[in-house]
Write a structure and sequence with these properties.
Elements (H helix, E strand, L loop, with lengths): L4 H10 L11 E4 L5 E6 L5 E6 L5 E9 L3 E6 L7 E6 L4 E5 L9
Antiparallel strand pairs: 1-2, 2-5, 3-4, 3-6, 4-5, 6-7
Length: about 100
């Protein structure tokens, strides 16, 4: 069964073979509409997306690769500043995310 480009990229990222991880990780617009947030947190059991403006949870990222790749799809809207709340089974902590949208030449 051939891998989709998304699954292939997740696999490359987890194996350390992605040449542009920050072009893939973080919050990005999806070509078909909506937003997607991806994170690589190898020790996390779960990740929650927190809107940095409001402090309100926007959803939990789902685990998409056993080495710690997580993903959350969001409806259409403008990218926003966010934090990720990580649960690792021992402690809970938050860290700042960014909006790494770039115009490509």
């Amino acid at each position: 069964m051939p891998l989709t480009s998304e699954r292939a990229r997740v696999k490359r990222l987890a194996e350390g073979g992605d040449g542009d991880p920050f072009g893939f990780l973080g919050m990005h617009r999806k070509p078909e509409g909506g937003l997607v947030v991806r994170a690589f947190r190898p020790k996390a059991e779960s990740l929650e997306l927190i809107d940095a403006r409001t402090g309100i949870g926007a959803g939990f990222l789902r685990w998409v690769h056993p080495d710690g790749v997580f993903l959350l799809e969001l409806p259409p809207g403008e990218p926003f500043a966010y934090r990720l709340r990580e649960y690792d089974g021992v402690a809970t902590f938050e860290f700042e995310g960014s909006v790494p949208l770039r115009k490509r030449a």
